[in-house]
Write a structure and sequence with these properties.
- With about 260 residues, this protein is mostly helical.
- It has helices at about 10-40, 50-70, 80-85, 85-120, 135-160, 165-190, 200-225, 245-250.
- The chain has one domain.
């Protein structure tokens, strides 16, 4: 598989999420191995490994879809899609983005209040180790869905390339939206309201993530703003991606 490289601010953020989820899976394997050793070799089972694996697994589940969308590896009925003419494929893609948008809007509309309340009171899991799984995973899922919507629109613009100004306008608007949401959230994140129970260490950590998101937006603007990416084509001829000799692409031997 040839990885589809990021173009634009939305791709940059999705790509960053993917790197975290890749190492997150390795982290789960490592702590589960640690639990097995402690439980069956030293007879000292831990309280935290099982819940930490649930916590990390929930975060991976919430964010892995971003990478799948950015790589165009989500589920698609290829038998029908590949048989369709070009104009009908474009219709299918537009319908797909519309369905994604409706789903994301519905979940954000119905789940924002609950997610904000869980985060504000720093709701914990209610076990012996008591990690803040509800307080973190619920808001993360909504954030991931918002970026999923932006990624779907970004793919549509790039895969069926619109005029350069359309792509650049989307990059500016989507990047500005991310920056606005981060800046708008900063005062609330460091609120002195006694009912806002988020620990200081977590406030700082989340603030660092917001600054990183702004940095990725700026990187996407500076790196890709003046370039027009090649449209993504899953049925392209791989020989056209590399400078290969004519003998190889034609299937002839180069030896005498």
């Amino acid at each position: 598989m040839i990885e589809h490289k990021p173009t634009g601010p939305v791709d940059q953020i999705s790509y960053a999420f993917s790197r975290v989820t890749i190492w997150g899976a390795a982290f789960i394997v490592a702590i589960m191995f640690y639990e097995v050793v402690m439980r069956y070799v030293f007879f000292q089972p831990t309280l935290w490994v099982n819940e930490m694996s649930l916590w990390a697994g929930g975060m991976i589940y919430a964010t892995a879809g971003l990478y799948a969308m950015q790589q165009r590896s989500h589920i698609r009925i290829y038998v029908l899609y590949d048989m369709a003419p070009l104009w009908l494929r474009q219709v299918f893609d537009v319908i797909s983005v519309l369905c994604t948008s409706i789903f994301v809007f519905a979940v954000l509309w119905g789940g924002f209040g609950e997610a904000a309340a869980k985060f504000a009171r720093w709701e914990v899991f209610g076990t012996a180790w008591d990690p803040p799984i509800p307080a973190t995973d619920k808001p993360l899922m909504l954030i991931a869905l918002l970026f999923l919507f932006l990624q779907a629109v970004s793919n549509l613009i790039r895969d069926w390339p619109a005029a350069p100004w359309v792509r650049k306008a989307f990059d500016v608007i989507s990047g500005a939206l991310v920056i606005f949401l981060c800046v708008w959230s900063f005062p609330g994140l460091f609120s002195t309201d006694p009912e806002f129970a988020v620990p200081t260490t977590w406030r700082v950590f989340i603030g660092v993530l917001m600054v990183a998101a702004i940095g990725y937006v700026l990187r996407g603007w500076l790196k890709d703003f003046n370039t027009t990416p090649v449209p993504f084509d899953e049925n392209r001829d791989p020989s056209q991606e590399f400078d290969l000799p004519a003998e190889i692409t034609a299937g002839r031997s180069t030896q005498n």
